[in-house]
Amino acid sequence: MARYEIFVTYKQGIFDPPGATAERALLNLGYEGVDSVKIGKFIQLEADADQAAVAAMCDKLLANPVIEDYRIERVEE
Amino acid sequence: MIRFAVVVFPGSNCEQDVVWAARFLGHEAEYVWHGDTSLEGFDAVVLPGGFSYGDYIRTGAVARFSPIMSEVARFAERGGPVMGICNGFQILTEAHLLPGALLRNKGLRFICREVALRMEESVCQWHDIAPGTIVNIPINHNEGNYICDSETLDQLRTNGQIVLRYAEPGGAPNGALDDIAGICNERGNVFGLMPHPERVVDPAVGGTDGQPFFTAIVNRIAEVAG
């Protein structure tokens, strides 16, 4: 059984409303150094599957390739 | 008599309104459970609004794998008319039956109100309203912020696939690209829109601007059948 951590984020150039709102809120709170906030999804997956199979799961269901990128990291036990 | 199939997913909540609207206008309409695998005997398919599978992962992401969806894709491939309203539109984009995607509304607010929409010159088979006409139809969604890449947008414009746009002061209330409220495929038989035409068919409850979205397709099917 392998453990994976998957990060799903919007593609470059796709407007991210929650990220933009958080960015504005941080600036309003006085955190002047804030330049950009992007909010995505974090998925923990345990499966008897190799990296290619996990990528297929992402392409088919876990991410929407039209709007999202994903990064898969295999977690060592 | 034209028969509408109205697909019910777990979490759909506008299917009764769609069936009611079709019947109000004198057509036959039946519910089809998402687990069914046949559209035998139906002339047109509507994917209604709601929150299929609780909108988990992404809106429409799970519903697109429902057993009936392979049949909806085959039906569309054969030229059968398919309309997705709100969550139905989201499902059609996830299923790649329509291009692009629907993101969370700009401003993060769920929007539920009537909006003005401008009908565009398009190849859409689902209505016969003159281009430039303004119609008033309610929207009711959290993810209606249409997006696609610039190449796709060019194709939508060139092919007459942009069916209607928000015509509100300040543009699209949800931030949709190019004020897009509804699009169709190149053939014009698959149509998705965020507004809810089924809610404005009876003058007793809000207006009749939604009627053409049910009657035009019926007339067209009847013409084809001769």
Describe this structure in words.
The complex is a heterodimer of chains A (77) and B (226). Helix content of chain A is 31%, strand content 31%. With 77 residues, chain A is α+β, with helices and mostly antiparallel strands. Chain A has one domain (2-75): 2-Layer Sandwich (Mth169, Chain: A). The model of chain A has no long low-confidence stretch (mean pLDDT 94). Chain B has 226 residues and is α/β, with parallel strands linked by helices. Helix content of chain B is 23%, strand content 25%. Chain B has a 9-stranded mixed β-sheet with strand order 2-1-3-4-11-10-9-6-7, with helices on both faces. A two-stranded antiparallel sheet of chain B has the order 5-8. The model of chain B has no long low-confidence stretch (mean pLDDT 96). The chains are: A alpha+beta (77), B alpha/beta (226). Chain A binds chain B through residues 14-15, 17-18, 21, 61-62, 64, 66-67, and chain B through 57-58, 61-62, 65, 93-94, 99-101, 103-108, 145, 147-148, 175.
The CATH architecture of chain B can be given as: 3-Layer(aba) Sandwich
What is the subunit organization of this protein?
Answer: heterodimer
Look at the structure and name the CATH superfamily of chain A: Phosphoribosylformylglycinamidine synthase subunit PurS
CATH superfamily of chain B: Class I glutamine amidotransferase (GATase) domain
List the helices and strands and how they pair.
The complex is a heterodimer of chains A (77) and B (226).
Chain A: E1 2-10, H1 17-28, E2 41-47, H2 51-62, E3 68-75
Antiparallel strand pairs in A: 1-2, 1-3
Chain B: E1 3-8, H1 15-24, E2 28-33, E3 44-47, H2 67-77, E4 82-85, H3 87-94, E5 101-103, E6 111-119, E7 134-141, E8 145-147, H4 150-158, E9 162-166, E10 180-184, E11 190-193, H5 212-225
Parallel strand pairs in B: 1-2, 1-3, 3-4, 4-11
Antiparallel strand pairs in B: 5-8, 6-7, 6-9, 9-10, 10-11
